[in-house]
Amino acid sequence: MLCANLRERLLQSSTPLTPVLSPMDLLHLATCPACRQFRQEVARIHTAARRLPHTPLPESLRPRILDALPASPVPVRPIGPPRRRLAAGLVAALLGALALIAGPRLFVRPTNAAEVLSAVRKTHTWHLAGWQNKMGKQIPWEIWGRRSPYFYREQIGDEILQDDGTHRIHVIPPQRMHSRGIVLRMPSRPLAPTTDGGNPLDTHAAFLDGIGLGTETYLSELTEVSRTISRIILKAPTVESGDFTQYGLFTVDAHTHLPLQFELRKTIIREFVDHRCHPIRDPEPHIEATLRAEYDSPLPPEVADAVPQPEGYLIADAADSPTLPAVPDPDAAAPAAIATKNGITLQAEALAQDREGNLKLRVRAWLGSAPTNEYKILLAQDISLRCPPYTQPGEGAYPTDDQGGHYVQLNAPEADSTVPQIGFRLCYLTHIEPTPAGATSLPHTVTIPLRARIFLYEDILENGSSSMHTVPIMEENLSITIPLPGKAKDLDYDRPRPHDPGLIYNPANKHKRLRWETAMDRASYYMSEAELWEPGHVHSRPEAFLPVGARRRIPLLQQAVAWYRIWLNESESIQDANAIRDAKLSLKSAQDDLARASKP
Amino acid sequence: MILFDIDRWLMRRARQGDPEAFGRIYDRHSRQVFHLLRRLTGDDRSQAEDLTQETFVAAYQALPDWRGEGKLSTWLCGIAYRRYASSRRRQIPQEPWDDTLPIAAPNADPLLLCTGHQMETALEEAIAALPERAREAFVLVRVEGMRYRDAADLLQIPLGTLQSRLGRATLLLRDRLAAYLPDTAGQPSAVRPAEGETNHAVR
Fold first, then answer.
1. Who has the most CB within 10 Å: A190, B10, B99, B145?
2. Cβ atoms of A144 and A91 closer than 8 Å
3. pLDDT grade, residue A397 (50/70/90)?
4. Which residue of A has its CA nearest to B56?
5. What pLDDT digit, counting tens, does each position of A565-597 carry?
6. Is the peptide bond before A149 cis (omega within 30 degrees of 0)?
7. Angle between the B19-40 and B72-91 helix axes, to the nearest 10 degrees?
8. CA A180, A290, A473: angle at the middle one, nearest 5?
């Protein structure tokens, strides 16, 4: 039986090349040549299947398909990035969500939407009470809110989020990996109006994601599942997230049109086996969280007047001024620059400036007086340019130096540059027009528009495994002017130092080269700028339809073609098949655009 | 920081009505879609070409539905599978699931084995000869690398059924490819130890 059971698990493993095996299985494998042989054969088949080549398609297929496309343009809808899944603890605003729920698109009968929205707007206070599942336990969950004067308080177990319209206080009790709790004092952030694809810190988004309902797009698909004389039940579509699926149910009072209850139902999915090597099947959905709502009850004094002040906790107060390091960073090649806004302070310094004018910068952040790396893994920062390439060309200024030169951001030689980092942030900028060889003067300052986000890391045990969730707690846009060293030095880009603070080093990225990255980003910059002068493009300027449009566009496209050629050469030199394919396609597209723009 | 994601960039342009952007999406993903369909149809290139055309036309019409979540290739493969499933329903009655369905006997000469190309060819033939439902599961998960849950949803079957079909497919392929799978000592499988001859002292 042991052979048969082991083979069944090997065949059904979701990771057939590295199946998870119990010690008993491993012991059996060590003593059973037939099962070892079987395992090897299965692995060979699966490896060969993944490596099956793709032979060329018939040449005639491409025109046949593209000619068959409908002629009319496709309606535009914004593409939003996958919304960050927030921790269930940060629930900030029920009313915003209820207003969303009441949106006219959500109901089978549109008249209900206006009635629910109107009913919600007439409420003055609200009180939600229920529980949510944490680590297999039902943790009490309670929310009090008042419209005016603004007040919001939410408590999940010992975690408290309270906002009195002046300050927001977030009390995070000790967690499994943090022996000491923390109190965050920040400026108030009242309920925000809902906007599609907007700021991820919008409280409604925190609410929606916090209760596992995902994005507004998802909410817009709520459907009425049943109706009685007194109640209407709305169901949200099922959402999948790795090891589980879940959906929300809302109950609305048919007479008052006020939402009365929310329920989150969850089904755990595991593709593993239990300790006795039996496959774990999908159980029935269980209730993961629930809240019941009451409206217009007076706020109890012990709720409205209490200020959470737990003893022994670390305190990070955004109102405090930072204590900047007395000793400068030994890597810094020029003095640091400082910018502060609403409790977030950024310190930026230039580490290197190469002969082409490319820059390597390091940025540090403070929340109040506390550097974000002081709390180790509890707080993290994510600092990025506000106008990166490929997003919204022309939306904002590019980083600009004192000689008028513009820069775009380079992907850093990191494992994943979207991961919020702790303490430091390395940032690479490339000069759009490389400084000519032999130039005597390099720029002396660069001004950069930045977006700084501070995250809270939550250490959560769910579905039997530990995971870290990031919860955004503050976000500010700042502009900072950084002194530059004025003399050339290598950026250490092609051979990054593995322990460079701020760098998430990944040896798999060793093929990354500065010339490859700069060529790609410069080409993309010129393509984005050319789009501004492309008649009929969504971002084009009104003058794009005039002759001046073509005159402006042609040199930009010529630059794009030139840089795509360099990108292709660099891709060929590192023998990266995917990069070569992308570079060829991009080059051809730019050449086609140039040919069309050049026609009289 | 923004990672360069050419698919998102192309999709944005395509949704703005740029047909060239969609052409580039075709260039990037058509081979994967075509080969998925070729394998699903049992190496029927003509049908795979037609379904590839249907897939990209359907994808173009469904551009507004793409939410930017997940890989574009997964989304396209999902459309491709649904077109395939739809065409299969139009053409033939549902094939009953038959565990005893035989597959073609190995036809390779052992003396010609053990090169990568021959293994690929034999594997392609063996996949094409699999029972249809086992083939679907194997192609989606093992060849195209789709997640279990995604594949189960696409096939509209429970996870357990998907696992069972995958196991069945792998066993059938193992039988058919036995001559290509030397044992740990490099010997042809014909001389590998029978299961009854193993040491089962730990049982």
1. B10
2. no
3. low
4. A65
5. 999 999 898 887 777 887 888 898 889 889 988
6. yes
7. 50
8. 40
Q: Contact, A197 vs A203, CB < 8 A? A: no
Under DSSP, is residue A234 helix (H, G, I), strand (E, B) or coil?
strand
Burial of A458 (0-12, 13-18, 19+ CB in 10 A): buried
Q: What is the tens place of the pLDDT at every residue in A260-311?
A: 888 888 877 654 444 555 545 556 678 888 888 888 888 898 888 777 788 8
Q: How far is CA A225 from CA A250, B78, B149, in A?
A: 10, 28, 26
Residues A212 and A91: their CA atoms lie apart, in Å, by 11
> What is the C-alpha separation between A145 and A147, in angstroms, rounded?
7
Residue A138: enclosing H or E segment and its boundaries? Answer: strand A137-146
- Give how far the C-alpha of residue A358 lies from the chain's centroid of Cα atoms, to the nearest Å: 27
b/e per residue B6-20 (b: at least 16 CB within 10 A): bbbbbbbbbbbbbeb
Q: Please identify among residues 42-101 of chain A the ones whose CB lies closer than 8 Å to any CB of chain B.
A: 42, 44-46, 48-58, 61-62, 64-66, 68-70, 73-77, 79-82
Nearest to A456 by CA among A76, A54, A150, A183: A183
Phi, psi (deg, nearest 5) at residue B148:
-55, -50
Q: How many Å lie between the alpha carbon of A8 and the closest alpha carbon of chain B?
A: 7
B120 close contact with A: CB closer than 8 A: yes
Q: Which residue has the higher pLDDT, B185 or A467?
A: A467
Q: Can you give A104-123 as a three-state secondary structure string?
A: HHHCCCHHHHHHHHHHHHHC
pLDDT tens digit sequence for A56-87: 777 778 887 877 776 654 444 333 333 333 32
What's the pLDDT tens digit per position in B83-103?
888 777 665 444 433 333 333
- A311: exposed, middle or buried (Cβ count in 10 Å: 0-12, 13-18, 19+): exposed
A/B interface, count of CB pairs below 8 Å: 210
Tell me the C-alpha distance between B154 and B139, whole Å. 12
B167 contact partners, CB below 8 Å, separation of at least 6: A8, A11, A12
Q: In degrees rounded to 5, what are phi and psi of residue B162?
A: -60, -45
- Beta partners for A476? A452
Question: What type of residue sits at position B152?
Answer: A
> Any bridge partners for residue A249, and if so which?
A235, A263
Task: Kindly state the tokens that stand for A499.
Answer: 């322990």
Which residues numbered 271-290 in A keep a CB inside 8 Å of some CB on B?
271, 279, 281-282
The ipTM estimated for the assembled molecules is 0.72
Output the six-digit token pair for A406: 């513009």
Query: Strand, helix or coil at A216?
Result: helix
CA angle, A328 then A334 then A339, to 5°: 75
The pLDDT assigned to A412 comes to 66
Report residues of chain B scoring pLDDT below 50: 1-4, 92-115, 184-203
Q: How far is A122 from chain B (nearest CA, A)?
A: 35
Indicate the pTM of the whole model: 0.50
Is the dihedral angle over the CA atoms A64, A68, A71, A75 positive or is it negative? negative
Return the number of other C-beta atoms located less than 10 Å from residue A63's C-beta. Answer: 10
Gap between the terminal Cα atoms of chain B: 55
| Single-letter amino acid code for the residue at A517 | E
Q: Does B132 touch chain A (CB under 8 A)?
A: no
